[in-house]
Amino acid sequence: MKKVVFACAILLMGTSCDELTHLANQYPDVVNQAVAPTQSEIIAGLKEALTVGIKNTVLQTNKKDGFYGNSLIHIPVPAEADKVMSTLKNLGMNSLVDNFETSLNRAAEEASGQAVDIFVDAITKMTFEDAVGIWKGNDDAATQYLKRTTTSQLEAAFNPITKKAIEATDVTMYWDDIAGVYNNIPFVTQVNPDLNKYVNEKAIDGLFLMVAKQEKDIRENPQARVSAILQKVFGYKG
Questions:
Q1: Residues 50 and 18 reside in one and the same domain
Q2: What is the pLDDT of residue 12?
Q3: Is 236 inside a domain boundary?
Q4: Is 231 exposed, middle or buried (0-12, 13-18, 19+ CB in 10 A)?
Q5: Residue 208 and residue 187 in one domain
Q6: How many folded domains does the chain comprise?
Q7: Are residues 43 and 26 in the same domain?
Q8: Are 112 and 66 in contact (CB under 8 A)?
Q9: 126: containing domain
């Protein structure tokens, strides 16, 4: 790569400004690979990458079947409720069980629509040192930074949103029905999992997983770099 850059530099020494502009426009990938981004460009590029990733993620999750129809982030019934579900299915209550699982995912789909502002606010606090470490890091370095520095705040902010979504999609009603029927069966261990906490955690985990996929795509796929700053920062091969 260094030999290529050096050869290009020799050729460009005898090139006019107009010709250089034309070449830069015609071959942006080559120019981006040869010219290192500045500090401000690195920060701007990382923030934009995360913002783009978040917005793309929410577009995918904040709709019907955004969670339910996505095998990567589909929310199953709580593990502690598996026995309950099996028992109720054996009693012919398949519809109630299916409605319950669907509603868990509908709650996450509804809540995910409120996540953009929370994530974007956290992105604005990124420092240059953070940005450089992320820029040179693994495919999910930006997502891990975001997860590491904001999870507790996100949980606190996301919890009432998830709770509201759960109530709006009748998850609590379904669970109350299911748990009530199950708990009335003789000799069974009583169950009462915290649905709000469960859906909240699963929704946040799902969002981070999808953001990580978006980040990796921007790092590896030039077509995913939808702006000049993303092309400059992630196109550079120093």
A1: no
A2: 42
A3: no
A4: middle
A5: yes
A6: 2
A7: no
A8: yes
A9: 39-230
Whether residues 9 and 94 share a domain: the answer is no
Residue with the two structure tokens 């319950």 = 100
Q: Calculate Rg over the CA atoms of the chain.
A: 24
Tell whether the torsion through CA atoms of 119, 120, 126 and 130 is positive or negative. positive
For residues 9 and 75, membership in a common domain is answered with no
Model pLDDT, residue 23: 44
The token pair that represents 37 in the structure block: 């981004």
Separation in Å, CA 15 to CA 8, 10, 18, 24, 80: 11, 10, 8, 12, 70
* CA-closest candidate to residue 60, choices 196, 209, 233, 228: 209
DSSP summary character for residue 200: H
Q: Mapping DSSP to helix (H, G, I), strand (E, B) and coil, where does residue 226 land?
A: coil
DSSP 71-114: TTT--PPPGGGHHHHHHHHHTT-HHHHHHHHHHHHHHHHHHHTT
For 108-156, give the DSSP string. Answer: HHHHHTTHHHHHHHHHTT--HHHHHHHHTS-TTHHHHHHHHHHHHHHHH
H/E stretch holding 27? none
Residue 59's pLDDT is 93
In a domain, residue 176? The reply is yes
90 inside domain: yes
Average pLDDT by stretches of 10, the chain with 238 residues: 44 47 49 70 86 90 96 89 77 79 88 83 85 87 87 80 76 73 81 81 93 89 83 78
- Beta-carbon contacts of 13 under 8 Å, excluding residues fewer than 6 positions away, are none
How many of the other CB atoms lie within 10 Å of CB of 153? 12
